[in-house]
Design a protein that fits this description.
The protein is globular. It contains six helices and eleven strands. Helix 1 (4-24) runs antiparallel to helix 2 (28-40) and helix 4 packs antiparallel against helix 5. The chain starts with a helix and ends with a strand. The strands form three sheets. Strands 5-6-7-10-11 form a five-stranded antiparallel sheet, with no helix packed on it. Strands 3-4-8-9 form a four-stranded mixed sheet. A two-stranded antiparallel sheet has the order 1-2. By secondary structure, the chain is of the alpha+beta class. Strand 6 and strand 7 form a beta hairpin. The mean pLDDT is 95. Among the domains are: 81-180, no CATH class; 182-262, Immunoglobulin-like (Sandwich).
C-alpha cells in the first residue's frame, strides 16, 4: 500500500549511507547500488485536499482523529520537507496538521501535542508551536510536570505517565530556538511573541557545534558558536546569513546582524 513513512525512512537511510561512503571514499559498488535504489523510490505526493499523502494512493483517512502523525516524519525529525527547500510539500504538511487539529474527537495525548509543536516549529510558525507546547504543559502534565496520556486512550482506565511528552516537549522548545542541518545553523526560526526577550546557552547543533543565543524584542542581538569539528558552517537568522570555515575547538561571536566579532 506504500505508506509514506516507509518511503521516508528508506530514503533517509540510503542517503545517509551514500553520503557516508562518499565522505570515506570507499564502497564504490555499494554507492552505485544505493543511487539506483534511491532513484526508484516514489516521491512524496500531495493529495486532492492539499494534504501530504499518507499512502501512494490518495485514500480517505480511516481515522482522521487518530493520535499518530507518522507520515510527517519527513518534516520532523527528518529534513526531506523544509519551508525553503520544498515549499509545496511544506504547505501540504501544514494542511495535514491543520486538518488533524480540526477533528472534534482528536485523541489528545502528550506526544501528539509535542508532534504538533515540532511540526509547526519546523514550518517556522512560532505562534502555533507555542500554542501546542502551552497545551502540553498546561493540560497534559501532572503537578510534577510528568506528561500523561488521558484516560480512555487505547483503553487506558486512568491518566498514565508517558515520557514521550517530556522528551518531545523539550525538543519543541529547542526547535523553536535553533534548527540545524549538517552545515547550517538557523537561529530563532520559530520564536513566538510571548518569548520576545531571552537568552539560551548550550544548545547543540548538527555538525558538532554548541550555540548560545541572546535576543531582544523578537530579534537576535548576539550569538556564540563553538565548533568541535572543522568545516564550512552557515549561520542564519531572519534575513541575515554568514558562512565561514570553522576550526576544531573554534569559538565565534556574532552581533545581531551576524557580523563576526573579533
Amino acid at each position: 500500500m506504500g505508506p509514506a513513512m516507509d518511503q521516508m525512512l528508506v530514503r533517509e537511510l540510503f542517503e545517509f549511507c551514500l553520503k557516508s561512503a562518499e565522505l570515506l571514499g570507499r564502497d564504490d559498488d555499494f554507492q552505485r547500488m544505493l543511487r539506483e535504489a534511491i532513484a526508484k523510490l516514489p516521491p512524496l505526493q500531495i493529495g486532492r485536499r492539499g494534504q501530504l499523502q499518507e499512502w501512494l494512493e490518495d485514500y480517505e483517512e480511516a481515522q482522521p482523529q487518530h493520535r499518530h502523525l507518522s507520515h510527517l516524519f519527513a518534516l520532523y525529525p527528518g529534513h526531506q520537507i523544509t519551508p525553503g527547500g520544498t515549499p509545496e510539500l511544506a504547505r501540504a504538511a501544514r494542511v495535514t496538521l491543520e486538518n488533524r487539529m480540526l477533528q472534534n474527537e482528536l485523541e489528545d495525548v502528550e506526544f501528539t501535542a509535542a508532534l504538533f509543536g515540532l511540526g509547526f516549529a519546523r514550518l517556522h510558525d512560532g505562534e502555533n508551536a507555542y500554542r501546542h507546547i502551552s497545551h502540553l504543559i498546561g493540560g497534559l502534565c501532572f503537578e510534577n510536570l510528568f506528561t500523561y496520556s488521558k484516560s480512555g486512550i487505547a483503553g487506558a482506565e486512568s491518566n498514565i505517565f508517558v515520557i514521550d511528552g517530556n522528551l518531545g516537549g523539550t525538543a519543541v522548545i529547542a526547535e523553536m530556538l535553533l534548527q540545524s542541518r549538517a552545515d547550517e545553523i538557523h537561529l530563532l526560526p520559530a520564536l513566538p511573541a510571548a518569548w520576545s526577550n531571552g537568552t539560551v546557552t548550550g544548545l547543540r547543533a548538527k555538525g558538532n557545534a554548541e550555540v548560545d543565543i541572546v535576543w531582544n524584542n523578537g530579534r537576535l542581538t548576539a550569538a556564540a558558536v563553538r565548533t568541535s569539528s572543522p568545516g564550512k558552517v552557515t549561520v542564519r537568522s531572519g534575513d541575515a546569513e554568514i558562512s565561514f570555515l570553522a576550526e576544531a575547538g573554534g569559538g565565534y561571536l556574532f552581533n545581531g546582524r551576524l557580523e563576526l566579532l573579533p
